[in-house]
Amino acid sequence: MIEHRGGSPTKSATAPRSVVALVDATSGVERKLVGAWLGDGGIAKEIGTDAPITQLDLDAGAIAGRLVGRRDDPLVVPIRVLWLPPERDGVRRMTFADLAMLTNPRKPHRLAQRKLVRESPDRYVILTGQPALLSELRANNPEAAALHAAGTTEPFARAILRAAVVALERAERSIIGDRYKVPRLVAEEILDSPDFLRKLELIADQIGADPQEVYRRAEKALNELVAAQSRLVSDLFTQAMRPVHASTWKVDTDESGLAALRALNRRYPLVFLPSHRSYVDAFVLGDVLARNDFPPTHVIGGANLRFWPLGPIARRTGTVFIRRSFGDDEIYKAVVGEYFAYLVAKRFNLEWYFEGGRTRTGKLRPPRYGLLNYLAAAVRADRVDDVMLVPVSITYERLNELGAIATEQSGGTKKPEGLTWMARYIRSQQHSAGHVYVRFGAPLSARDRLAAHGDPLTPPRVSIPLHHTDGAAEPIVDTDPETVERERKAVQRLAFEIAVGINRVTPITVNALATLALLGVDERALTLGEVRALLAPVLGYIEKRGLPSGELDALRDEQSLAVVLEQLSLAKVVTVYRGGLEPVYSIESGAHLEAAFYRNSAVHWFVNRAILELSILAAVDSGAPDQLRTGWDEALRLRDLLKFEFFFPDRAEFTAQITAEVLLIDPDWNSRSRRDTLGTDILAKLTASGFVMAHRVLRSFFDAQLVVAERLAARDPGVAVDRKEFLDECVSVGKQMLLQQRLHSPESVSTELFGSALKLAANHGLLTPVAGTSAKDRAEATARRTEFAERLRDIGARIAQAAALDPSNIPGATR
């Protein structure tokens, strides 16, 4: 028996006088099945009329010749046969066994179709898309209909074809699930858009190029971008990769908010913005979303991963390979912007890593704004009602690719992606790496948040001179500087909000705390009991604040803690010496960058505590009569020095957060009245709290800043700084300073940290070359650089004070 499922026609006061069935058939078998269903009164039973039915192929030529010119108003119904895979373990899906049989269960060949009709009638469905009257199709496509009225039928025919395909795709998803939502005819629809064609004409005028050449380049760029998704490849790729990762990690997902997110997705497109720590982020997140029946995301990836065979496979599973730099290619920019706007307008979900690349330090990198700008442009132009931005934290207990990341940080060359790289990657996943935590932050309305951050949300006004004879006239685009600046700041603030959303749900893992403990003891090995005693007050602090965490109970008893440290030893991050009275643990020689990576995944939770500690020490050391004011001033200065490393709120909220940290140490602090002893009083409480964070959390960042500051102070301020050459110099000199024990850990010798420190120096006006040859100007510039370095040396000395107060650095205190 043939089953029918699909959309129901819109009820109207007047039944349609005629029906046009647009049949999407690929074989005689499918045509026969559809014909039999029509002959059995399939459509007539649905719409309650005996109106005559005309069958047309779902083809632009047939539609142009036999439908668009009709003067009556037929009901247009798209129809196709939907073939289903066999049911396996309660789920209809494809397997590699199907591939071995040289057939695709979703698109069986003609002989397989005949067999299914005879033997497996449950494997096919006659599917109808949502019907529409021809007059409704004209109303929905006014520009194409206008061209038809002027004698050009092809645009309207193609518009009807696309509408039919979309209707059938929607009907299919009601049967096979949202995870199989894939776009069709994307390039064709974009290239048929009158607005986009006008934009290309505008670009042709701007760059002085032939409009046909601009169109050709746009078509090429679009075909390069568009993800040609395949349900077959998606199913098989997921089945191939899932066992690889299942043997490596146990995925821990907080699914409490996913139902609400799915409901939101029925109204708005979702843009998933995950933290980026590993190449496997997309696989992990994609699997979580597929298991929860989310539509597939279009993952924006770098063109460096477009090698065979990964590239062709990835494109067919939804990856959009985009150039890392567009330069001044206005055509490519326009194509990317239009493709983004198209995807969100059609409510396809997107995913990209707004940091621009994998973190080399373990913490979030500063955001890149390019793709967010395209998204904001689509919202401003009202191409979409709204887009919901979803911060996602993906946190690994252990990563098998950390060795390569550490090598890149210390000045090594990144190995290019390719077949050899892919083989190494798959081989590296054979080792168990514990949990991977996937957490979803609260979704952000792009429209609401942009408006809240001052974006005027108005599209640019463009005046295109359609008629000019001298060739000198150019299109005029409203680029009011004030508006552009407001838009720029709004996008930056939105990116900041996304980063905060990611950090807010990032859990503290057992390895983050274990490495936090061992990195802060000045190259000393600790017994199991010492590690446990060191972590006990930190665990209490985490519990008091209610911070998100992994399975931290494993750190509370020595047996479980020993397992954690042994796993880190197997990963060559921790070394264990067993030749004495009891095992002792320390960071593996040469593995400080890897250890710091794990620690830094949670370091943002302890930054305010570390700033508070240094501010208290500054207040006490100053001898000032108002220790409270001195402490606050120091906290704000430290916040300014760290603003390129961490995501701080505005001053008012930052002040409230620091106050909350003070109250955790001294609940009676607000009742103390003597401003000259407040620093001394809180220092005593801090020492009694059982742990100090400043040297564990901030030392590596300030040490890296010191290297940059000293190298700047030693340079001629009249010569511009070449970034790559300067960073190479910092790595070389940093290694020397490490050998001289002027730096406290190899984790400070990091191109990533040096790069952030260089941005800080630029923000302080220390990179601008001195113009002219004035000795006074050069001396003043050098003095400012020297003062910057001296300030960092003072902070380093204060961090050493904090380290001396930490019980873990006092012999016998943590036993």
TrEMBL record:
Record EC number: 2.3.1.15
A Pfam family hit: Acyltransferase
Cross-referenced NCBIfam families: PRK03355.1
Subcellular location(s) per record: Endomembrane system
Protein source organism: Nocardia xishanensis
Family designation: Belongs to the GPAT/DAPAT family.
All copies of domain Phospholipid/glycerol acyltransferase, residue ranges: 270-397
Sorted UniProt keywords: Acyltransferase, Membrane, Transferase
Membrane topology: Peripheral membrane protein
One function term, GO molecular function aspect: glycerol-3-phosphate O-acyltransferase activity
The protein's name: Glycerol-3-phosphate 1-O-acyltransferase
Catalytic class of the enzyme: transferase
Listed PANTHER family: DIHYDROXYACETONE PHOSPHATE ACYLTRANSFERASE, GLYCEROL-3-PHOSPHATE ACYLTRANSFERASE
Principal subcellular localization: membrane
